[in-house]
Inverse folding.
């Protein structure tokens, strides 16, 4: 038994308790600024602080969200009243977490492929984050499907990085979210995505096993098995749900604490519909909870409505809460498109 075993298990279970998921709000400053620019918000720290405050102070968010993934800048920020975000999140009944990788960089000798960096000095950063009050972490690996890729080199390098990160986290008391994202970019078919996701997860769990990562003290954050966004044959909601669950059942050990999907560029409604179908049709076959860890698929409607205008905060928070509620329902197989229509009528 590791030093933090009980705490790590408890964190994992609280994060994805029934009806709850994880809110990703860990966009790097560059990514956050890019999203701001797209809706006409200035790329400045004061706006990033205001936006993150809008998210974490949303009333009743903890009814649907077990934890929030933060970025280093956000972790050190406070509300306008001077309450540190970390403290505010914990007191609101959610667990604060932190993105610890330093980004996907070009993989040497493999054009078009990435490897995630950030292992150097990670043990010390984990110790600092734990001391500050974070209780889980996230590391994202990126797998691109294309002509002749992903290569074995890319899959192995990313699986190894994720496994070493997860081991360091468990040693230091942060419950690791392990995120191997097979990108939706491209014109590949659902079948090709299934094949790549299968190989990605197979190699990942081999490495996690090799590095002695405790499966019951980690959460997997995979992408769904879905056709590339430029593929002319887009699959039905049921086909995506079935292909995804089949792939997980084949590769993910039953002892893993939970599975929390990324939305990966899907629309908010699509991400909810796919998650709902998985739980409705296959929930009883799955040995782990299947829920969400979405960023854009929860945040986007709120971000677009807010647009940097302080007079629109309360209404933007309603939009955020609505998306969290829809995904909470989807994580229990209880979501319907009717939920979208009802809310549209209220917000009109």
């Amino acid at each position: 038994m590791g030093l933090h075993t009980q705490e790590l298990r408890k964190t994992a279970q609280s994060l994805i308790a029934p009806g709850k998921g994880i809110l990703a709000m860990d966009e790097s400053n560059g990514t956050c600024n890019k999203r701001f620019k797209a809706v006409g918000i200035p790329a400045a720290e004061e706006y990033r602080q205001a936006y993150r405050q809008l998210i974490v102070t949303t009333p009743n968010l903890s009814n649907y969200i077990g934890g929030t993934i933060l970025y280093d800048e956000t972790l050190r920020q406070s509300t306008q009243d001077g309450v540190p975000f970390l403290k505010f999140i914990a007191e609101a009944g959610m667990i604060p977490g932190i993105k610890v990788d330093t980004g996907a960089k070009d993989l040497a000798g493999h054009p078009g492929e990435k490897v995630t960096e950030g292992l150097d000095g990670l043990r010390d950063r984990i110790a600092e984050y734990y001391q500050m009050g974070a209780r889980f972490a996230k590391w994202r690996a990126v797998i691109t499907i294309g002509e002749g890729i992903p290569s074995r080199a890319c899959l192995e390098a990313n699986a190894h990085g994720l496994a070493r990160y997860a081991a360091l986290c468990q040693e230091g008391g942060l419950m690791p979210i392990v995120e191997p994202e097979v990108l939706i970019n491209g014109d590949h078919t659902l079948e090709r995505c299934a094949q790549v996701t299968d190989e990605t997860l197979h190699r990942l769990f081999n490495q996690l096993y090799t590095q002695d990562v405790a499966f019951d003290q980690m959460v997997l954050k995979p992408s769904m098995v879905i056709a590339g966004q430029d593929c002319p044959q887009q699959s039905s909601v049921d086909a995506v749900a079935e292909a995804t669950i089949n792939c997980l059942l084949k590769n993910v050990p039953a002892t893993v604490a939970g599975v929390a999907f990324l939305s990966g560029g899907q629309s908010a409604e699509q991400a909810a519909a796919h998650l709902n179908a998985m739980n409705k049709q296959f929930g009883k076959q799955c040995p782990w909870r299947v829920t969400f860890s979405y960023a854009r698929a929860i945040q986007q409607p709120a971000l677009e409505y807010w647009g940097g205008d302080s007079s629109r905060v309360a209404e933007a928070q309603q939009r955020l809460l609505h998306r969290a509620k829809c995904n909470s329902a989807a994580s229990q197989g209880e979501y319907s498109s009717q939920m979208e229509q009802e809310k549209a009528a209220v917000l009109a």
The two ends are 54 Å apart (CA to CA). Residues 152-172 form the longest helix (21 residues). The beta strands are 21-24, 65-70, 95-99, 104-106, 114-116, 136-143, 175-182, 219-220, 258-261, 289-294. The chain has a mean pLDDT of 96.
